[in-house]
Amino acid sequence: MKAEVPKDGNRIEDVSGEKIVSSDNERIEGTAGVDELDETEARRILSKVDYRLVPFLALLYLVAFIDRSNIGNARVAGLTDDLKMKGLQYNTAVTLFFVPYTILEVPSNIILKMMRPSHWIAILMFLWGVVMTLMCLIHNYSGLLAARWFLGVAESGFFPAATFLLTLWYRRYEVQRRMAVMYVAASLAGAFSGLLAFGIQELEGVSGLTGWQWIFLIEGLVPVALAFAVWFYLPDSPETARFLTQPERDFLVRRLAEDTGSGQGQVTNQDKMGRKFIIAGLSDWKIWAAVIIFWGNTVGVYGFTATVPTVISGLGYSRANAQLLTIPIYVFASILTIIFAWWSDKAQTRSPFIVAGFSIAACGFIAQLAIPHPKYPGLTYGFLFPVAGGLYCPFIILVTWIANSLAPSSKRAVGMALLISVGNMGGIMGSNIYLDREKPKYRTGFGVSLAMCLAAIIMTIVIRFAYQRENAKRMKLLEEHGEDAIRARYSDQEMLELGDKSPFFKYTL
Known about the structure:
Residues 53-471 form the Major facilitator superfamily (MFS) profile domain. By secondary structure, the protein is mostly helical.
Protein backbone atom coordinates (compact mmCIF):
# COMPACT_ATOMS: atom_id res chain seq x y z
CA MET A 1 0.00 0.00 0.00
CA LYS A 2 1.18 3.51 -0.74
CA ALA A 3 1.21 6.09 2.03
CA GLU A 4 1.17 9.81 1.59
CA VAL A 5 3.13 11.47 4.37
CA PRO A 6 3.00 15.25 4.63
CA LYS A 7 6.26 16.99 3.75
CA ASP A 8 7.12 20.71 3.76
CA GLY A 9 4.05 22.83 3.13
CA ASN A 10 1.41 20.90 1.15
CA ARG A 11 3.86 18.77 -0.84
CA ILE A 12 3.50 15.00 -0.24
CA GLU A 13 5.71 12.15 -1.24
CA ASP A 14 5.37 8.37 -1.58
CA VAL A 15 7.46 6.72 1.11
CA SER A 16 6.00 3.22 0.73
CA GLY A 17 8.54 0.65 1.80
CA GLU A 18 11.20 3.26 2.50
CA LYS A 19 13.54 2.67 5.42
CA ILE A 20 14.03 4.92 8.41
CA VAL A 21 16.86 5.32 10.90
CA SER A 22 16.42 3.45 14.17
CA SER A 23 18.04 4.22 17.50
CA ASP A 24 20.94 1.91 16.66
CA ASN A 25 21.53 3.73 13.35
CA GLU A 26 20.33 0.75 11.31
CA ARG A 27 17.60 0.90 8.67
CA ILE A 28 14.25 -0.68 9.47
CA GLU A 29 11.19 -1.20 7.32
CA GLY A 30 8.12 0.96 7.88
CA THR A 31 5.24 -0.94 9.46
CA ALA A 32 1.79 -1.32 7.93
CA GLY A 33 0.41 0.87 10.73
CA VAL A 34 2.68 3.73 9.68
CA ASP A 35 1.72 3.28 6.02
CA GLU A 36 -1.96 3.74 6.82
CA LEU A 37 -1.52 7.08 8.54
CA ASP A 38 -2.69 10.09 6.57
CA GLU A 39 -2.44 13.81 7.08
CA THR A 40 -5.41 13.88 9.45
CA GLU A 41 -3.76 11.23 11.56
CA ALA A 42 -0.55 13.25 11.54
CA ARG A 43 -2.38 16.21 13.06
CA ARG A 44 -3.95 13.91 15.64
CA ILE A 45 -0.59 12.47 16.68
CA LEU A 46 1.03 15.91 16.90
CA SER A 47 -1.88 17.09 19.04
CA LYS A 48 -1.13 14.31 21.51
CA VAL A 49 2.49 15.41 21.61
CA ASP A 50 1.48 19.07 21.96
CA TYR A 51 -0.74 18.47 24.97
CA ARG A 52 1.87 16.34 26.70
CA LEU A 53 5.02 18.36 25.98
CA VAL A 54 4.44 22.05 25.20
CA PRO A 55 2.35 23.28 28.17
CA PHE A 56 4.63 21.45 30.58
CA LEU A 57 7.79 23.01 29.14
CA ALA A 58 6.07 26.40 29.16
CA LEU A 59 5.29 26.04 32.85
CA LEU A 60 8.88 25.06 33.60
CA TYR A 61 10.29 28.00 31.67
CA LEU A 62 7.86 30.37 33.39
CA VAL A 63 9.22 29.21 36.74
CA ALA A 64 12.83 29.43 35.53
CA PHE A 65 12.48 32.98 34.25
CA ILE A 66 10.68 34.15 37.37
CA ASP A 67 13.46 32.77 39.55
CA ARG A 68 16.27 34.40 37.58
CA SER A 69 14.56 37.81 37.31
CA ASN A 70 12.70 38.16 40.62
CA ILE A 71 15.66 40.07 42.02
CA GLY A 72 14.08 43.11 40.33
CA ASN A 73 10.88 42.59 42.32
CA ALA A 74 12.87 41.91 45.50
CA ARG A 75 14.68 45.21 44.95
CA VAL A 76 11.39 47.10 44.88
CA ALA A 77 10.33 45.16 48.00
CA GLY A 78 13.35 46.48 49.94
CA LEU A 79 16.22 44.08 49.20
CA THR A 80 18.82 46.76 48.44
CA ASP A 81 17.83 48.83 51.47
CA ASP A 82 18.00 45.92 53.91
CA LEU A 83 21.39 44.73 52.58
CA LYS A 84 22.68 48.33 52.53
CA MET A 85 23.68 48.11 48.86
CA LYS A 86 25.07 51.16 47.11
CA GLY A 87 26.20 52.29 43.68
CA LEU A 88 26.66 49.46 41.19
CA GLN A 89 26.32 46.67 43.73
CA TYR A 90 22.83 45.74 42.52
CA ASN A 91 24.03 45.66 38.90
CA THR A 92 26.93 43.42 39.95
CA ALA A 93 24.57 40.99 41.68
CA VAL A 94 22.37 40.80 38.58
CA THR A 95 25.42 40.37 36.35
CA LEU A 96 27.08 37.59 38.35
CA PHE A 97 24.28 35.17 37.46
CA PHE A 98 25.33 35.20 33.81
CA VAL A 99 28.97 34.16 34.35
CA PRO A 100 28.38 30.48 35.24
CA TYR A 101 25.15 30.54 33.22
CA THR A 102 27.17 31.33 30.11
CA ILE A 103 30.11 29.02 30.74
CA LEU A 104 28.11 25.87 31.50
CA GLU A 105 25.42 25.79 28.80
CA VAL A 106 27.44 23.91 26.17
CA PRO A 107 28.69 21.23 28.65
CA SER A 108 25.11 20.90 29.90
CA ASN A 109 23.73 20.12 26.43
CA ILE A 110 26.50 17.60 25.82
CA ILE A 111 25.44 15.82 29.03
CA LEU A 112 21.80 16.11 27.93
CA LYS A 113 22.56 14.24 24.68
CA MET A 114 24.22 11.45 26.67
CA MET A 115 21.42 10.83 29.18
CA ARG A 116 17.64 11.08 29.43
CA PRO A 117 16.55 14.74 29.01
CA SER A 118 13.80 14.33 31.64
CA HIS A 119 16.31 13.28 34.29
CA TRP A 120 18.85 16.01 33.50
CA ILE A 121 16.22 18.76 33.46
CA ALA A 122 14.77 17.47 36.73
CA ILE A 123 18.20 17.59 38.39
CA LEU A 124 18.73 21.17 37.22
CA MET A 125 15.31 22.29 38.49
CA PHE A 126 15.80 20.73 41.89
CA LEU A 127 19.17 22.43 42.31
CA TRP A 128 18.05 25.92 41.33
CA GLY A 129 14.93 25.59 43.48
CA VAL A 130 17.07 24.80 46.52
CA VAL A 131 19.35 27.78 45.80
CA MET A 132 16.40 30.15 45.37
CA THR A 133 14.74 28.93 48.54
CA LEU A 134 17.92 29.45 50.56
CA MET A 135 18.20 33.02 49.24
CA CYS A 136 15.62 33.99 51.86
CA LEU A 137 18.35 33.44 54.47
CA ILE A 138 20.93 35.88 53.08
CA HIS A 139 21.70 38.80 55.35
CA ASN A 140 24.50 40.66 53.54
CA TYR A 141 25.75 41.59 50.08
CA SER A 142 28.33 38.78 49.96
CA GLY A 143 25.59 36.22 50.55
CA LEU A 144 23.56 37.67 47.68
CA LEU A 145 26.54 37.39 45.32
CA ALA A 146 27.16 33.76 46.29
CA ALA A 147 23.50 32.90 45.82
CA ARG A 148 23.32 34.54 42.38
CA TRP A 149 26.43 32.62 41.29
CA PHE A 150 25.02 29.22 42.25
CA LEU A 151 21.63 30.12 40.76
CA GLY A 152 23.44 30.70 37.46
CA VAL A 153 25.17 27.31 37.77
CA ALA A 154 21.91 25.47 38.35
CA GLU A 155 19.81 27.27 35.71
CA SER A 156 22.46 27.22 32.99
CA GLY A 157 21.28 24.11 31.19
CA PHE A 158 17.52 24.47 31.23
CA PHE A 159 16.69 26.71 28.26
CA PRO A 160 19.15 25.05 25.82
CA ALA A 161 17.84 21.66 26.93
CA ALA A 162 14.17 22.60 26.56
CA THR A 163 14.55 24.17 23.11
CA PHE A 164 16.69 21.28 21.85
CA LEU A 165 14.15 18.78 23.17
CA LEU A 166 11.43 20.38 21.03
CA THR A 167 13.54 19.95 17.88
CA LEU A 168 13.50 16.18 18.49
CA TRP A 169 9.72 16.12 18.09
CA TYR A 170 8.76 18.60 15.36
CA ARG A 171 9.79 19.46 11.81
CA ARG A 172 11.40 22.79 10.96
CA TYR A 173 8.16 24.66 10.15
CA GLU A 174 6.28 23.14 13.09
CA VAL A 175 8.71 23.68 15.95
CA GLN A 176 8.70 27.47 16.17
CA ARG A 177 5.06 27.93 17.12
CA ARG A 178 5.53 25.35 19.88
CA MET A 179 8.77 26.96 20.99
CA ALA A 180 7.00 30.33 21.02
CA VAL A 181 4.31 29.03 23.36
CA MET A 182 7.08 27.93 25.70
CA TYR A 183 8.98 31.19 25.35
CA VAL A 184 5.87 33.28 25.93
CA ALA A 185 6.27 32.03 29.47
CA ALA A 186 9.31 34.33 29.65
CA SER A 187 7.12 37.28 28.69
CA LEU A 188 4.41 36.22 31.11
CA ALA A 189 7.06 35.69 33.77
CA GLY A 190 7.39 39.45 34.01
CA ALA A 191 3.65 39.76 34.50
CA PHE A 192 3.36 36.86 36.95
CA SER A 193 6.46 37.95 38.79
CA GLY A 194 5.01 41.39 39.33
CA LEU A 195 1.65 39.97 40.39
CA LEU A 196 3.22 37.39 42.70
CA ALA A 197 5.57 39.95 44.20
CA PHE A 198 2.64 42.30 44.81
CA GLY A 199 0.86 39.60 46.80
CA ILE A 200 3.85 37.97 48.47
CA GLN A 201 5.36 41.19 49.77
CA GLU A 202 2.16 41.67 51.77
CA LEU A 203 3.54 38.91 54.01
CA GLU A 204 6.04 41.47 55.28
CA GLY A 205 6.79 40.72 58.93
CA VAL A 206 5.17 37.27 59.03
CA SER A 207 7.48 34.84 60.88
CA GLY A 208 10.00 37.64 61.12
CA LEU A 209 10.71 37.64 57.37
CA THR A 210 10.66 40.67 55.10
CA GLY A 211 8.67 40.89 51.86
CA TRP A 212 11.67 40.14 49.64
CA GLN A 213 12.59 37.10 51.77
CA TRP A 214 9.10 35.69 51.25
CA ILE A 215 9.47 36.27 47.49
CA PHE A 216 12.62 34.14 47.38
CA LEU A 217 11.22 31.45 49.70
CA ILE A 218 7.89 30.87 47.96
CA GLU A 219 9.20 31.21 44.41
CA GLY A 220 12.03 28.79 45.24
CA LEU A 221 9.86 25.97 46.59
CA VAL A 222 7.92 25.72 43.30
CA PRO A 223 10.78 24.31 41.13
CA VAL A 224 11.75 21.90 43.91
CA ALA A 225 8.27 20.38 43.74
CA LEU A 226 8.16 20.44 39.93
CA ALA A 227 11.49 18.60 39.65
CA PHE A 228 9.85 15.36 40.79
CA ALA A 229 7.09 15.73 38.18
CA VAL A 230 9.68 16.33 35.44
CA TRP A 231 11.59 13.15 36.33
CA PHE A 232 8.55 10.93 35.74
CA TYR A 233 6.30 12.91 33.35
CA LEU A 234 8.46 14.68 30.74
CA PRO A 235 8.83 12.54 27.56
CA ASP A 236 12.37 12.19 26.21
CA SER A 237 11.97 11.43 22.49
CA PRO A 238 9.52 9.96 19.93
CA GLU A 239 11.37 6.63 20.03
CA THR A 240 10.64 6.10 23.75
CA ALA A 241 7.32 7.95 24.21
CA ARG A 242 5.07 5.60 26.17
CA PHE A 243 1.99 7.76 25.62
CA LEU A 244 2.16 6.97 21.87
CA THR A 245 1.54 3.66 20.09
CA GLN A 246 4.36 2.00 18.17
CA PRO A 247 2.97 3.04 14.73
CA GLU A 248 2.69 6.61 16.01
CA ARG A 249 6.27 6.57 17.25
CA ASP A 250 7.51 5.17 13.94
CA PHE A 251 5.61 7.80 12.02
CA LEU A 252 7.16 10.69 13.95
CA VAL A 253 10.67 9.29 13.49
CA ARG A 254 10.08 8.84 9.75
CA ARG A 255 8.79 12.35 9.05
CA LEU A 256 11.61 13.94 11.06
CA ALA A 257 14.21 11.92 9.13
CA GLU A 258 12.87 13.33 5.86
CA ASP A 259 12.88 16.97 6.98
CA THR A 260 15.87 18.24 4.98
CA GLY A 261 14.04 21.19 3.43
CA SER A 262 14.73 20.02 -0.13
CA GLY A 263 12.52 16.93 -0.29
CA GLN A 264 15.63 14.77 -0.82
CA GLY A 265 18.00 12.93 1.49
CA GLN A 266 17.59 12.35 5.20
CA VAL A 267 18.74 13.68 8.56
CA THR A 268 18.91 11.89 11.90
CA ASN A 269 18.24 12.60 15.57
CA GLN A 270 19.69 9.28 16.69
CA ASP A 271 23.37 10.09 16.20
CA LYS A 272 25.73 9.65 19.14
CA MET A 273 27.51 12.66 20.59
CA GLY A 274 31.12 12.68 19.46
CA ARG A 275 34.16 14.90 19.12
CA LYS A 276 33.57 15.76 15.47
CA PHE A 277 30.04 17.01 16.18
CA ILE A 278 31.23 19.09 19.12
CA ILE A 279 33.89 20.71 16.92
CA ALA A 280 31.38 21.23 14.10
CA GLY A 281 28.96 22.96 16.46
CA LEU A 282 31.63 25.20 17.97
CA SER A 283 33.27 26.20 14.67
CA ASP A 284 30.29 27.18 12.49
CA TRP A 285 30.78 30.93 11.83
CA LYS A 286 27.07 31.50 11.27
CA ILE A 287 26.36 30.55 14.89
CA TRP A 288 28.89 33.13 16.08
CA ALA A 289 27.36 35.73 13.75
CA ALA A 290 23.91 34.91 15.16
CA VAL A 291 25.27 35.67 18.65
CA ILE A 292 25.24 39.36 17.73
CA ILE A 293 21.55 39.07 16.89
CA PHE A 294 21.05 37.28 20.21
CA TRP A 295 22.76 40.17 21.99
CA GLY A 296 20.22 42.51 20.44
CA ASN A 297 17.69 40.64 22.53
CA THR A 298 19.54 39.88 25.76
CA VAL A 299 21.13 43.30 26.23
CA GLY A 300 17.69 44.87 26.10
CA VAL A 301 15.60 42.17 27.77
CA TYR A 302 17.70 41.48 30.85
CA GLY A 303 18.39 45.13 31.53
CA PHE A 304 14.73 45.96 30.86
CA THR A 305 13.34 43.11 33.00
CA ALA A 306 15.53 43.93 35.98
CA THR A 307 14.86 47.67 35.73
CA VAL A 308 11.32 48.20 34.46
CA PRO A 309 9.64 48.15 37.92
CA THR A 310 12.10 50.87 38.99
CA VAL A 311 11.51 52.82 35.75
CA ILE A 312 7.77 52.82 36.39
CA SER A 313 8.12 53.71 40.07
CA GLY A 314 10.37 56.61 39.01
CA LEU A 315 7.43 58.04 37.06
CA GLY A 316 5.64 58.77 40.31
CA TYR A 317 3.83 55.48 40.92
CA SER A 318 3.93 53.65 44.26
CA ARG A 319 5.98 50.48 44.68
CA ALA A 320 2.88 48.30 44.64
CA ASN A 321 1.42 49.97 41.55
CA ALA A 322 4.79 49.79 39.79
CA GLN A 323 4.70 46.00 40.23
CA LEU A 324 1.17 45.79 38.82
CA LEU A 325 1.83 48.12 35.89
CA THR A 326 4.47 45.75 34.52
CA ILE A 327 1.78 43.15 33.80
CA PRO A 328 0.12 44.70 30.68
CA ILE A 329 3.57 45.26 29.12
CA TYR A 330 4.48 41.59 29.28
CA VAL A 331 1.03 40.45 28.16
CA PHE A 332 1.43 42.60 25.02
CA ALA A 333 4.89 41.11 24.42
CA SER A 334 3.44 37.60 24.75
CA ILE A 335 0.70 38.24 22.19
CA LEU A 336 3.16 39.73 19.70
CA THR A 337 5.54 36.78 20.16
CA ILE A 338 2.80 34.25 19.34
CA ILE A 339 1.65 36.22 16.29
CA PHE A 340 5.17 36.47 14.88
CA ALA A 341 5.89 32.77 15.50
CA TRP A 342 2.75 31.52 13.76
CA TRP A 343 3.18 33.94 10.88
CA SER A 344 6.83 32.97 10.40
CA ASP A 345 6.00 29.24 10.31
CA LYS A 346 3.16 29.86 7.85
CA ALA A 347 5.42 31.94 5.59
CA GLN A 348 8.25 29.39 6.08
CA THR A 349 10.81 32.13 6.53
CA ARG A 350 12.64 33.61 9.54
CA SER A 351 14.86 36.60 8.80
CA PRO A 352 12.16 39.17 7.81
CA PHE A 353 10.39 38.64 11.12
CA ILE A 354 13.61 39.07 13.10
CA VAL A 355 14.23 42.39 11.33
CA ALA A 356 10.63 43.48 11.95
CA GLY A 357 10.81 42.72 15.69
CA PHE A 358 14.03 44.61 16.28
CA SER A 359 12.68 47.53 14.24
CA ILE A 360 9.69 47.78 16.58
CA ALA A 361 11.98 47.70 19.61
CA ALA A 362 14.24 50.36 18.05
CA CYS A 363 11.25 52.70 17.66
CA GLY A 364 10.43 52.20 21.34
CA PHE A 365 13.97 52.97 22.46
CA ILE A 366 14.12 56.08 20.27
CA ALA A 367 10.91 57.31 21.89
CA GLN A 368 12.28 56.64 25.40
CA LEU A 369 15.37 58.71 24.58
CA ALA A 370 13.30 61.54 23.13
CA ILE A 371 10.67 61.86 25.87
CA PRO A 372 11.68 64.24 28.69
CA HIS A 373 11.38 61.97 31.75
CA PRO A 374 9.43 62.11 34.02
CA LYS A 375 7.44 64.96 32.48
CA TYR A 376 5.06 62.72 30.53
CA PRO A 377 4.61 59.55 32.64
CA GLY A 378 1.72 58.20 30.55
CA LEU A 379 3.64 58.57 27.29
CA THR A 380 6.79 57.09 28.79
CA TYR A 381 4.83 54.11 30.09
CA GLY A 382 3.09 53.65 26.73
CA PHE A 383 6.37 53.36 24.81
CA LEU A 384 7.55 50.60 27.13
CA PHE A 385 5.13 48.35 25.20
CA PRO A 386 6.94 48.40 21.81
CA VAL A 387 10.26 48.01 23.66
CA ALA A 388 9.12 44.78 25.33
CA GLY A 389 7.17 43.47 22.34
CA GLY A 390 9.92 44.21 19.85
CA LEU A 391 12.61 42.61 22.01
CA TYR A 392 10.75 39.43 22.86
CA CYS A 393 9.18 38.46 19.51
CA PRO A 394 12.35 37.99 17.38
CA PHE A 395 14.22 35.95 19.99
CA ILE A 396 12.48 32.62 19.51
CA ILE A 397 12.55 33.09 15.73
CA LEU A 398 16.34 33.39 15.92
CA VAL A 399 16.74 30.27 18.08
CA THR A 400 14.48 28.33 15.71
CA TRP A 401 16.29 29.69 12.65
CA ILE A 402 19.64 28.41 13.88
CA ALA A 403 18.10 25.10 15.02
CA ASN A 404 16.56 24.65 11.54
CA SER A 405 20.02 25.09 10.03
CA LEU A 406 21.98 22.58 12.16
CA ALA A 407 22.14 18.81 11.66
CA PRO A 408 22.59 16.12 12.86
CA SER A 409 21.16 16.44 16.34
CA SER A 410 24.52 16.32 18.16
CA LYS A 411 25.79 19.32 16.22
CA ARG A 412 22.43 21.01 16.83
CA ALA A 413 22.69 20.39 20.58
CA VAL A 414 26.15 21.97 20.73
CA GLY A 415 25.36 24.80 18.30
CA MET A 416 22.14 25.81 20.03
CA ALA A 417 23.85 25.75 23.42
CA LEU A 418 26.73 27.85 22.04
CA LEU A 419 24.32 30.42 20.62
CA ILE A 420 22.38 30.67 23.87
CA SER A 421 25.52 30.55 26.01
CA VAL A 422 27.54 33.30 24.36
CA GLY A 423 24.34 35.14 23.49
CA ASN A 424 23.44 35.36 27.16
CA MET A 425 26.66 37.29 27.76
CA GLY A 426 24.53 40.16 26.53
CA GLY A 427 22.83 39.88 29.89
CA ILE A 428 26.08 40.97 31.50
CA MET A 429 26.06 44.14 29.45
CA GLY A 430 22.32 44.64 29.87
CA SER A 431 22.60 44.35 33.64
CA ASN A 432 25.11 47.20 33.81
CA ILE A 433 23.78 49.84 31.43
CA TYR A 434 20.71 50.93 33.41
CA LEU A 435 22.48 53.07 35.98
CA ASP A 436 20.88 54.33 39.19
CA ARG A 437 22.42 57.75 38.77
CA GLU A 438 20.61 58.18 35.43
CA LYS A 439 17.10 57.33 36.57
CA PRO A 440 14.43 57.96 35.46
CA LYS A 441 15.93 58.79 32.01
CA TYR A 442 18.38 55.86 31.74
CA ARG A 443 19.99 57.30 28.62
CA THR A 444 22.87 54.82 28.63
CA GLY A 445 20.54 51.85 28.98
CA PHE A 446 18.13 52.92 26.26
CA GLY A 447 20.94 54.12 23.98
CA VAL A 448 23.04 50.95 24.13
CA SER A 449 19.93 48.79 23.68
CA LEU A 450 19.02 50.79 20.57
CA ALA A 451 22.50 50.31 19.11
CA MET A 452 22.30 46.55 19.69
CA CYS A 453 18.93 46.36 17.94
CA LEU A 454 20.43 48.04 14.87
CA ALA A 455 23.45 45.69 14.93
CA ALA A 456 21.07 42.71 15.13
CA ILE A 457 19.19 43.89 12.05
CA ILE A 458 22.42 44.20 10.03
CA MET A 459 23.70 40.76 11.06
CA THR A 460 20.35 39.13 10.24
CA ILE A 461 20.70 40.36 6.67
CA VAL A 462 24.29 39.04 6.50
CA ILE A 463 23.32 35.53 7.64
CA ARG A 464 20.32 35.39 5.31
CA PHE A 465 22.59 36.24 2.39
CA ALA A 466 25.05 33.47 3.40
CA TYR A 467 22.30 30.84 3.63
CA GLN A 468 20.78 32.00 0.36
CA ARG A 469 24.11 31.69 -1.43
CA GLU A 470 24.75 28.19 -0.07
CA ASN A 471 21.26 27.02 -1.11
CA ALA A 472 21.90 28.27 -4.65
CA LYS A 473 25.24 26.42 -4.81
CA ARG A 474 23.62 23.15 -3.73
CA MET A 475 20.77 23.54 -6.18
CA LYS A 476 23.25 24.09 -8.98
CA LEU A 477 25.23 21.00 -7.90
CA LEU A 478 22.10 18.83 -8.02
CA GLU A 479 21.14 20.19 -11.43
CA GLU A 480 24.59 19.53 -12.86
CA HIS A 481 25.29 16.06 -11.41
CA GLY A 482 21.93 14.61 -10.42
CA GLU A 483 20.77 13.02 -7.18
CA ASP A 484 21.99 9.49 -7.98
CA ALA A 485 25.53 10.59 -8.80
CA ILE A 486 25.80 12.54 -5.55
CA ARG A 487 24.41 9.66 -3.47
CA ALA A 488 27.00 7.33 -5.00
CA ARG A 489 29.80 9.33 -3.38
CA TYR A 490 28.67 8.54 0.18
CA SER A 491 27.43 5.63 2.24
CA ASP A 492 24.08 6.05 4.00
CA GLN A 493 25.82 6.61 7.33
CA GLU A 494 28.23 9.19 5.86
CA MET A 495 25.33 11.07 4.30
CA LEU A 496 23.51 11.21 7.65
CA GLU A 497 26.64 12.43 9.43
CA LEU A 498 27.08 15.24 6.89
CA GLY A 499 23.96 16.77 8.40
CA ASP A 500 23.55 20.36 7.27
CA LYS A 501 26.62 19.99 5.04
CA SER A 502 24.75 17.44 2.90
CA PRO A 503 24.09 18.53 -0.72
CA PHE A 504 20.43 17.70 -0.06
CA PHE A 505 20.11 19.96 3.00
CA LYS A 506 18.39 23.31 2.37
CA TYR A 507 18.81 26.21 4.79
CA THR A 508 15.79 28.16 6.02
CA LEU A 509 15.86 31.84 5.07
